[in-house]
Amino acid sequence: MPTFTRGGVSLVYEEHGAGKPLLMFAPGGMRSRIAAWQRVQPNLIDALSKTYRVIVMDQRNAGASWAPIHATDGWSTYTNDHLALLDHLGIGRFHALGVCIGGSFIAGLALAAPDRLIAGAMLQPIGLDNNRDAFLELFDGWASEIKAKHPETAEEAWASFRANLYEGDKVLFNASEEELTSIQTPLLVLMGNDLYHPSSASRTIAARAPNATLVEQWKEPEFHGATLERIAAFLAAHP
After folding, report:
1. What distance in Å separates the CA atoms of residue 146 and residue 142, rounded to the nearest whole number?
2. CB-based contact 142:208 (threshold 8 Å)
3. What average pLDDT does range 9-29 have in this prediction?
4. Per-position b or e across 223-232, b if 16+ CB within 10 A of its CB
5. DSSP string of 142-156?
6. Could you give the residue ranges of the DSSP H alpha helices within the chain?
7. What does the pLDDT look like over 67-80, one tens digit per residue?
8. Parallel/antiparallel/unpaired status of strands 187-190 and 117-123
9. Residue 21: exposed, middle, or buried by beta-carbon count in 10 A (0-12, 13-18, 19+)?
10. 15 contacts 47 by C-beta, under 8 angstroms
11. H or E stretch including 56?
């Protein structure tokens, strides 16, 4: 797989298909990586790469990607990775689709680069709703898996990174309700309904973001065909 490197960071990515660029974020939280697409149904890479230049990636310190850990790391660190990879690929404007943590990644791009993100599809986005401890536990589990690869990183840096991600009070962790009202990017929100992807987060995005559309039923197998059609139609409506 190709690797993009910058400033000590190595990001592994893949490209599928051809056409307008579509950056896709896999589920898995801190473990968001290309291999996670294998468990996503319907199969979005196969379906969308027929029309789009689909770009998928291992996030930093997930899968085969690697990056140093700093106390200042946070959501903007990931946004900077995403934009840098697109720059490396010669891509200006793009569509995005994200599952799970990918919803927050899309919000970060919409806030940081509204002139580049054309439209974003969020599938069961994560959100804050009496579940902070669950996200802190996920971070701790991920950190324990990779600490051996980062002997140079002090415990204080890990703690600061953890706090920067999950100890704030923003509904998407990186976007508040007020910030959502400023996002003019068209958003398609496929509602979550569990501890990590509370329906309240999806409903808040749909209520606050001016150009957001909420889809409540989509995950069950009987809806997969309609879900693919809905996503394809949404992306095509914003060329």
Report:
1. 7
2. no
3. 98
4. eeeebbebbb
5. HHHHHGGG-TT--HH
6. 44-48, 75-88, 101-112, 132-146, 155-166, 177-181, 199-208, 224-236
7. 999 999 999 999 99
8. parallel
9. buried
10. no
11. strand 52-57
Distances (CA, A) of 196 to 77, 124, 134, 188: 22, 9, 8, 19
Residue 216 one-letter amino acid: E
* pTM assigned to the model: 0.97
pLDDT of residue 142: 98
CB 150 within 8 A of CB 68: yes
Are the beta carbons of 15 and 7 closer than 8 angstroms?
A: no
CA 74/CA 139 separation, integer angstroms: 12
In which residue are the tokens 């949404």 written? 234
148 closest CA partner among 158, 136, 138: 158
